[in-house]
Amino acid sequence: MMWPLYLVGAGLLGWVATEALARLYMKARGRYYAWQPNARTRMEMDLTALPQLDAVTHFDINSIGERGAEPPTGSNYYHAIAMGGSAVECYMLDQKTEWPHQVQLQLNQPEALATLGVDSVHVGNIGRSLMACGPLCTMLDGVLRNYESVDLIFMMVGSSDIVAWTEQGAPADYTPKEMDAHAIFRAHPLGPFSWNPMSSAFRRLASSAYRKWAKPIEQRERVGKSVQRNQEKRAQGTMLKHVPDASPMLELYRENLTRLVGIARKKAKRVLLVHTPWVDRELSAEEQKHLWNFGSGKAQVGQVQEYFPWDTALSFLKGMDRVTHEVAADLGTAQVDLIPHIEQNFNTFYDDLHLTPKGCRDVGQLVADAIVADHASRSSGS
Questions:
Q1: pLDDT-derived band of residue 1, with 50, 70 and 90 as boundaries?
Q2: pLDDT band at residue 117, thresholds of 50, 70 and 90?
Q3: Domains in the chain, number
């Protein structure tokens, strides 16, 4: 009559052994990824909120944690990585519309391939919303361990640093809030794990295997409605009258951007700084209805009631852009300025910082041209 107890005991021992092996595997073989490998999402957009965007978008991650297709299987291809915050992530835009993919399309044209001396070009996107330069340093350092080498890393950064600062009320004595591994990486080998199957290392490995082989698609509806709510909240909010000193935040941005370029150079043959674009002009009252950023508090959780006016936000953005220019010059890093070459309207942007499909096409062409020109200049020795 003791056999049921023996079965229970054997099952518990089996589970303990399985979980222990899973944890050892995660510790020895686990990797860090910006995005969960093989994750796939299909989103139906709320076009009443964002009429400039496509009705249906796809957000697909390849097996190495990049948004984009699988890298080519041949050896003679050019691997580039796009990184930054939400302006690079392009969450609201389709897989084939986002601007890093547009860069890939342009670089796979025959003339560009001939200049680069390769058969094909792959661009992987590891941009993530709300990632300032400090957390991006941690993310890039972890992610680059997955690559033997990278031909190019091009980064568009800075606006997330400003948003993080204004969320805290733009203090003069600024200390960014720390982000742990769970916030910085969408997949990583770190715990904490428990013996509960729902929070175990085995479950994480099983979920990863399921995504790889079954390729499930997550369905989301009415995407973009939160942007509309945030726009309405800003329109009804209080505009802050004081203009805070952005110097401490900008000096921290300078320090972290310098560090980020250094990390990129350890693995990438070339680094390109892409200057963050925005609607670089004064806006009418009607146009300001598109805005929702630069508030004191987190818009994502409905905390914001006070906002910095657009002219104040412009001063922050211009300061950030100046620092980007200076860091690129100091480090001898290639850079491309976008604002002089794109239309400053809400056909190019769907809010103050994020691009529409048209904006992505324009930016993709400019960045691809800059990559080809930089490569041709180095090849000629000029």
A1: low
A2: very high
A3: 1
| Contact between residue 254 and residue 134 where contact means Cβ atoms under 8 Å apart | no
Distance CA 82, CA 90 (A): 11
User: Quick check: is 118 in a domain?
Assistant: yes
Residue 354 lies in a domain: yes
Packed helices 247-267 and 159-167: angle between N→C axes, nearest 10 degrees: 140
Q: Say which residue the tokens 């890298």 belong to.
A: 71
Instruction: Confirm whether 159 is domain-assigned.
Output: yes
From residue 297, how far is each of 31, 230, 234, 244, 333 by CA, in Å?
A: 33, 12, 12, 16, 34
Give the CATH number, domain containing residue 327: 3.40.50.1110
Residue among 218, 322, 334, 229 nearest 273 (CA): 334
Burial zone of 369 (CB within 10 Å; 0-12 exposed, 13-18 middle, 19+ buried): middle
Closest to 86 measured CA to CA, from 226, 215, 189, 211: 226
Contacts of 247 (CB under 8 A, 6+ apart): none
CA distances from residue 90 to 87, 234, 299, 350 in whole angstroms, order as listed: 6, 22, 18, 11
pTM for this model (two decimals): 0.94
Please write the tens of the pLDDT for every residue from 93-116.
Answer: 999 999 999 999 999 999 999 999
Q: Position of tokens 């990585």?
A: 81
Q: Where are the alpha helices (DSSP H) in the chain?
A: 3-29, 86-89, 99-107, 110-116, 133-143, 159-167, 181-184, 201-214, 225-236, 247-267, 310-331, 357-380
At 285, which helix (H) or strand (E)? none
pLDDT, residue 291, reads: 95
How far is the C-alpha of 298 from the C-alpha of 295, rounded, in Å? 7
Residue 204 lies in a domain: no
> What is the reported pLDDT for 299?
64
Question: In which domain, by residue range, is 175 found?
Answer: 31-191+213-380
Question: What is the residue-averaged pLDDT of the chain?
Answer: 94
